[in-house]
Design goal:
10 helices, PIN-like_dom_sf, 189 residues, alpha/beta, Rossmann fold, PIN-like_prokaryotic, DUF3368 domain-containing protein
Length: 189
């Protein structure tokens, strides 16, 4: 996919996924479909995000699907360099007492891997962009998949509806996806 090539054009950039997309996709029984959509992209998450998903298992056993997804690579962030990056992002996003640790870990992983962070926490994404990290939400990802011909608009709309049905707080419903993309400067063609 063209959009995952780094600025030098030499290597494909991976995605680093936060808990929100993985959580709702698993609960909607769409985690394998998400993996299919992203099959040509290296996809990562972090051990911190996995911990968040594990914590939700008693209430939502379907989260096991996300934990078992074989297309998703896990970064433990256990090297000195990664721990320093994680600590830096924790300070930047104000992580603590269970808040924003997942986003901080995703940002650290994306920074170290020259990846693109995918989280639906808009405030955290603004912080990431302030520090020069590329970070976007689920709707951006789906719009890119449509634009690249991986999926059609109707598939993106249906995917969004399935996430919303499981409690995802996205800025639009599936039926409003095209209009939302137009308002936000994301052409679908």
């Amino acid at each position: 996919m063209r959009w995952t090539t780094d600025v030098s054009g030499s290597r494909q950039r991976g995605l680093v996924l936060d808990a929100t997309l993985l959580n709702h996709a698993a609960r909607a029984d769409r985690i394998d479909l998400l993996g299919h959509y992203l099959k040509d992209i290296e996809c990562w998450t972090t051990a911190t995000v996995q911990e968040e998903l594990r914590a939700g298992l008693p209430a939502h056993p379907a989260l096991r699907r996300a934990l078992d997804a074989d297309w998703l690579l896990i970064d433990p962030l256990d090297t000195l360099e990664s721990l320093q990056a994680y600590a830096g992002w924790q300070r930047r996003v104000g992580a603590g007492e269970g808040r924003h640790r997942g986003e901080a870990s995703v940002f650290a992983c994306a920074e170290l891997r020259n990846g693109i962070a995918v989280t639906d926490d808009r405030a955290a994404n603004r912080v990431a962009k302030t520090y020069g990290l590329e970070a976007h939400g689920t709707l951006w990802l789906l719009a890119r998949l449509v634009r690249e011909g991986v999926i059609v608009v109707a598939a993106a709309e249906n995917f969004i509806e399935s996430l919303v049905a499981e409690g995802a707080r996205l800025p639009c419903r599936g039926s409003d996806f095209g209009a939302w993309c137009a308002r936000n400067g994301m052409e679908l063609t």
